[in-house]
């Protein structure tokens, strides 16, 4: 059982965060919404830029580091529901100076964004989950020296509305990562820039999490799916089975039905035992107070997978303001240098850092 030291870093109510070296001093910092928090103690807060508040939310559902303009400093990729625009914020390289925001594309309302190096170029492509629009991804244009130019190419790989939920998984085992949507999956062709990708309608995942995680849960050599219900109760895994003719079926298994609003998931070896654990929690007031379970206590958890048994361990649990959940985009990374991944948990209940102290009784 792991122990954690919980720290409230700020009362700010942004729901996304990232960890990267903002000021080039070699020490990771935390970025969340309109501010960044200087490492290693994260007690000094610096402005990024104004982030628009909208009806209890903020128009910022992703904060992801990428050197967009090739100046050697990591910038931020962002986007959210109300602005309907994928954007990047330029790191000025001067602490206290405002970051300028630039539009990439007016792509429709963004639930959140995930990132994957789909072509092996060394720079991840941008995959926004835009429920009302076909699935697309954006590739950073780089110059002859491999530096970002501030420009992006858009590739629309889906044809119908993508719906709520998205993830990455090699469904058919061909070595290429496919895109999982709430009602099926897009098969990556040999050339990922060949569009549209073939869509396979094979399941119905409900108000699926972002991400949906692909992982061989039961060790049978087939990739299964781990899915949270972002706007309802439930955390499940879907077992992939193959018939003799190669056709697929999916069997739904419960992991944990005690909590709702499981919007973000990470699969990380958090206890350093050589096997990944599932880390997730409740997103506080995901649809303000409109979802089932909206007024339940919040929590943050990790699960030992154990061949599909999913043993639950509580990191934090209780009423909002006392305990913390997970926002729409939390972050897992070792910040203290002890080797154990820590958890940065943003949300409408504040920005928290859970320092992973390792197993009970571990000497620091």
Calculate Rg over CA atoms.
20 Å
Percentage of residues in strands: 35-45%
Sequence of secondary-structure elements: EEEEEEEEEEEEEEEEEEEEEEEEEEEEEE
Helix content: under 10%
End-to-end span in angstroms? 16 Å
Order of strands across the main sheet: 19-18-17-16-20-21-22-23
User: Which spans of ≥5 residues are poorly predicted at pLDDT below 50?
Assistant: none
Shape: globular
| Sheet having the most strands | 8 strands, mixed
Total DSSP E strands: 30
Characterise the protein shown here.
InterPro entries: FG-GAP, Integrin_alpha_N. Keywords: Signal. It comes from Paenibacillus spongiae. The strands form 8 sheets. An 8-stranded mixed sheet has the order 19-18-17-16-20-21-22-23, with no helix packed on it. A 4-stranded antiparallel sheet has the order 1-30-29-28, with no helix packed on it. Strands 2-3-4-5 form a 4-stranded antiparallel sheet, with no helix packed on it. The protein has 364 residues and is mainly beta. It starts with a strand and ends in a 5-residue tail after the last strand. The protein has no helices and 30 strands. A hairpin with an 8-residue loop joins strand 20 and strand 21.
């Amino acid at each position: 059982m792991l122990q954690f030291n919980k720290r409230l870093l700020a009362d700010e109510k942004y729901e996304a965060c990232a960890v990267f070296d903002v000021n080039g001093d070699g020490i990771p910092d935390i970025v969340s919404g309109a501010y960044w928090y200087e490492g290693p103690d994260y007690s000094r807060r610096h402005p990024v830029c104004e982030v628009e508040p909208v009806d209890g939310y903020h128009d910022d559902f992703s904060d992801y580091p990428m050197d967009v303009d090739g100046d050697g400093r990591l910038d931020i990729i962002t986007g959210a529901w109300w602005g309907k625009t994928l954007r990047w914020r330029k790191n000025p390289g001067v602490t206290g100076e405002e970051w300028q925001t630039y539009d990439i594309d007016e792509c429709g309302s963004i639930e959140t964004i995930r990132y994957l190096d789909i072509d092996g170029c060394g720079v991840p492509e941008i995959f926004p989950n835009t429920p009302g629009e076909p699935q697309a991804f954006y590739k950073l244009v780089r110059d002859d020296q491999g530096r970002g130019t501030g420009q992006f190419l858009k590739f629309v790989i889906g044809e119908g509305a993508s719906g709520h939920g998205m993830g990455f998984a090699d469904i058919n085992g061909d070595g290429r990562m496919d895109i999982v949507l709430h009602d099926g999956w897009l098969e990556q062709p040999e050339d990922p820039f060949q569009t549209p990708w073939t869509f396979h309608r094979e399941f119905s995942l409900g108000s699926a999490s972002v991400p949906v995680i692909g992982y061989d849960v039961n060790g049978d050599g087939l990739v299964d799916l781990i899915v949270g219900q972002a706007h309802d109760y439930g955390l499940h895994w879907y077992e992939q089975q193959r018939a003799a003719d190669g056709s697929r079926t999916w069997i739904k298994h419960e992991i944990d039905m005690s909590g709702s609003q499981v919007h973000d998931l990470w699969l990380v070896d958090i206890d350093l035992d050589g096997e990944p654990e599932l880390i997730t929690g409740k997103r506080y007031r995901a649809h303000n107070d409109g979802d089932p379970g909206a007024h339940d206590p919040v929590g943050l958890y990790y699960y030992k997978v154990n061949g599909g048994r999913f043993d639950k361990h509580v990191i934090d649990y209780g009423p909002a303001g006392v305990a913390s959940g997970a926002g729409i985009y939390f972050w897992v990374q070792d910040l203290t240098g002890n080797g154990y991944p820590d958890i940065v948990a943003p949300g409408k209940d504040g920005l928290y850092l859970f320092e992973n102290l390792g197993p009970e009784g571990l000497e620091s």
